[in-house]
Amino acid sequence: MSGTAPIAGGCRYARDAVVTGIGFCLPGDGRPVFTADDLWNIASRGATCLMQSNAYYGSVDLSDAMFDERLPDVARFFSRHYTAAHRFGLVSMVEACSDAELDPLSGDLAHAAILAGRGGVDANIDSYLAVLRADPETIRVTEAMELFVAAEQAVTPSDVALVQGALSRSKGPNFTVSCGCASSAVQIGNARRLIADGEVDVAVVTGVDIFSVKLIRNIQRLLQGAQKTYEIIRSDDMPALLPSFDSLMRPYDRRADCINHGEGSATVIMESREHASRRGAHLYGQVLAQATTRDGLTNPLASDETGSELVSAVRRCLGDRWEISQVPYVHGGSDGNVVVTAFEANAIKELYGSAAQSLLMTSQEGCFGHNGAPAGCLGVALTLLMMERGEVCPTANCEQPADNLTFDPVPGVRTRPLDFDYALSFNYQVGGVKSAILLGSPDA
Length: 444
What we know:
The protein contains 14 helices and 15 strands. The protein is of the alpha/beta class. The chain has a 10-stranded mixed β-sheet with strand order 5-4-6-8-1-9-15-14-10-11, sandwiched between helices. Strands 2-3-7 form a 3-stranded mixed β-sheet. The longest helix is centred in the middle third of the chain and has 21 residues, at about 215-235. The protein starts with 16 loop residues before the first strand and ends with a strand.
C-alpha cells in the first residue's frame, strides 16, 4: 500500500505500481522474440527454441538489419562499439516502450528511472582484454580513442544501463543491480519502491545477459575430466558438480538432469497508476510486493533444500494484506536443476499445506534457456500475460512430472484455463538468494 489517497475504483491507489509495457530480445523460432504476442506464441505451446551444437543453447540471432530497424538514429561513433548485451538491452527497451506507447526519443522518459539487471560478464571480456593488451607506445591515436570508447561502454556491469540512459536522455535514477539470476527481479522491487515513494512516475526495468557458448563448451569438457576425481574427494558439505549441457533441460520432469543456457533481454515498463491512467495506458497488472532473502549458508554455491527462506520471502510479500489461498498460480524459477526443484517443492508444501496439489506452478525456462538476469522481468511479463488471458502456460519440456513434486507443473504442450487475480513469481541466484514477487491483476 502506497499510503496515498485512493483514486476512483475503491482499493486502487495513485502510487500503485502498474505494468504498462513489455518487450523482449530473446531466442525465437526462426526469428527473435520481440513482442508479447511473439512470447505467447512460444510459451503457450511449451515450445523450445534451444538448438543443439555440442551443447543445447538459446541464441537470439539478432541481425544488424533488425537492430537498425528499431534503433535507426543511434550515433555510429558509439554503436559500433556495442556488445551483444548493449544491442539486446536496447532492442527490448524500445519494444517495451512501443508496447507502452512511450517514445524515448521525444522526452517521454525524461524523468524515468532506467534500471538494469546484469548477472554475467561474458559480454564485457573482449573489450576488457583489448584494452589490457594494447601497447600505449605503439597504438595509433585513432585506435586508442576507439578502444577508450569501447572500454568505457563495456567493461563494467553498468554497461547496458549506460546506453539505455543515453537513449532515453533520462534525468532520473540510473543504476544496475548484479545478483545473478535474481538481478532484474530485485530491480522490479526497486522500481516499485521508487514509484510508491513518489520519486518517479515511470521506471524501465531490463534484465540482460550473455552466456558464451565457448565458455559453456569448455566447462563441459572440464567437468567431464574432473568428474571421477571429484567424486572420490567429495564430502558432505561440497555440492555435486553441475550436470552436462548436452541434453535437453526438463524442469519438473523425472528425467531432468541438465541446464541449458541462453542469451537475451527482457524489459518491463512500470508506472504509477495515476500517471498511467492520465495517459490512458493499457494495464497488464500490478507489482504488489517483492522480497529478497538468502539461505544463510557458508557454502557460496549451495542452496538450502528445505526452501525455508523462499517461504520467508513469500510471507514478506503477502504481509498482513493477502493470504496464500488467494494465489492459485506460481511462476517457478526452475532451470532443470533437481536441487531447485527440491527447495521449490518443499517451500510450496510449507506454504500451501494440503492445498498444494491443486496449485499450478510452471516454468518456461525450457523455451529460451536459462538466461540469467532477464529471468525476473521475463517471469513478471509472462505471468501477467497468463493472468490477462486466463490461461497458464505449460512447463516447457516437462512430459513426465517428477515424483517429488508437491504441485501441478502443467506438463505437455497446452495451456490450462485459470481465472486468477494474484500470482507469485520466483527467481534465484547461486548461493541461496531467493526472490519472490507478488503480482495482481489491474484492479486486484
